[in-house]
Amino acid sequence: MALSSANGGNAPKGKAKAAHVNMMTDTVIANLPPDALRGIVRGLLGFEQNLTSHFHDLAAKYLISTKPASTLSDVFKNNETSIVPNSSFFETQSRVRCLMGCGFGFESIKTLTDVLQELSSKFGKDAVADKQLFDSLASIDGDIVQAVTAVQKELLTGSGSRAMTSSEQEILKGLRSTLSAWSSSHEDQELKFAFARGYTRLAEFEGGGSVLPQKRQIATQSSRKRNHISETVQLGSLEVPRMFAGLWQFSSPAWGTASRAQINADFRKHVDAGFTAYDMADHYGDAEVTFGQFRSSQPDSSEIYCATKLCVFGSVEVSPEFIDSNVSQRAANIEANSIELLQFHWQDYDDHQYVQAAKLIANHPKVQNLGLCNFDTQRMDELVEAGVKVVSNQVQFSLIDLRPTFKMAASCRKNNVKLLTYGSLCGGFLADKWLNKPAPNLFDKNMTPSHRKYFEMIEVWGGWVLFQELLSILSSIGKKYNTSISTTAVRWILDHDYVGAVIIGARMGISEHVDENLEVYKFILDEEDQAGIQKILDKCKARDVFAEMGDCGAEYRQ
């Protein structure tokens, strides 16, 4: 049936169609379960990255329009034995995390201060804390870390950072005073240092050093004798194990939160097992500071190595002062005179200042070795040809993402650059639990953005049926060496001569797979193993993945 306009003529077809679609779209949105809606939004943002800024703008408007009119109250309640979080605590925490992600760092700090003040008013000197409360304290501590990072980002300008206003300074002062008062009012060591991570991150940001007493004695004893891994690689002046522990968990509360004591205990367990090289970044929350405090307190600190990053995402003016400020901050954060490996990321290739920046970093007295992060072959070659000494490039590489084999490998061999690889387990898909399983439902509440990213890559690579063939051969090889699919997949990466090390995520204080990760050093793949894997790879569409995603690191610049 034709629609008519108010004056009796036919309505413009496009407008009528748009109105109809909008109404039906709104009906779908109104009736989708929350988990499904989240999955769809994540899919949209992954499909069209330009939507991200619009998403943040709308989320920010929502946060402004729903700002609570009154001060927080009843975030915690008393039960028979302790203080426990109320339902409003979790609602407030969700809001705080949204504030941090949408650029309202100071507002998130103010809200966290209110939460702490209410907790302090209800938690007397003789009160007892149970596990539930300690878990809540650890999550607040982690949120303080992220909130300070959000403040740091909020102050960034093209030429550095702007000065804080007097009201912004008062907000930080309020948090600092509240944290100090909490520490002073408790004798119990776990309670006294419950917010050590947040306090340290705040003090580091303000540049005054932490006045909160720190537990500098960190246990160095473990249930195992210190293990020395024999499989190492030379990265410039460094000889390091061929497996790094990645600390990107510190960049978001989505990975979980843990107390400083739990994190330090896991650090020590990793070091005792032989994992002495750690990958972090300037934007991974308090990863640098936490690592630095742990390492500097250890008797074997000289055998523990730091690979951090200097990342330039926006428009800046490169100068010796700009580079010196960033490098010096990295060194200060890790409590060291110099950085063993500083990895350089530059977002905008159209801005050719990256050559000048790389030269300044490589020649800086506090940088022992320069690595790159997510550079493509063309720009890596450009730096090498400009005389920059590059020892490594951190890129994605797995049995599904074979892009380094097309261009990067030849350049690495020619220029003696080693790859530090991440994503080598394909977001967890290269694991026993996916063998003989149907393709995942990407709208399941347990599916993360990482799962979606890698599943879509699997689809381009060859699909779920071929992926099952790959898992099957990896499982057979794993049984031969009494190990897992994951370990076999990592071993395949390490057996490439241009790969220096594989970076495996370490969720310090939350979960660990130390013993499983050690198994990768117990075997190498023989010709039969390699042939079996290659038989599957010959069927895949690796070149299609390369064509769709571009060379290494291109996915971050689309």
Automatic annotation (TrEMBL):
Task: Alphabetically list the UniProt keywords.
Answer: Oxidoreductase
Q: Which domain of life is it from?
A: Eukaryota
Keyword match 4Fe-4S? no
Q: Taking every annotated instance into account, which residue ranges of this chain make up the domain NADP-dependent oxidoreductase?
A: 243-537
Pfam families from the xrefs? Aldo_ket_red
Which Gene3D superfamilies does the annotation name? NADP-dependent oxidoreductase domain
One GO MF annotation is: oxidoreductase activity
The record's listing under PANTHER family reads:
NADP-DEPENDENT OXIDOREDUCTASE DOMAIN-CONTAINING PROTEIN (PTHR43147:SF2), PROTEIN TAS (PTHR43147)
Provide the protein name: NADP-dependent oxidoreductase domain-containing protein
Lineage of the species this protein comes from: Eukaryota, Fungi, Dikarya, Ascomycota, Pezizomycotina
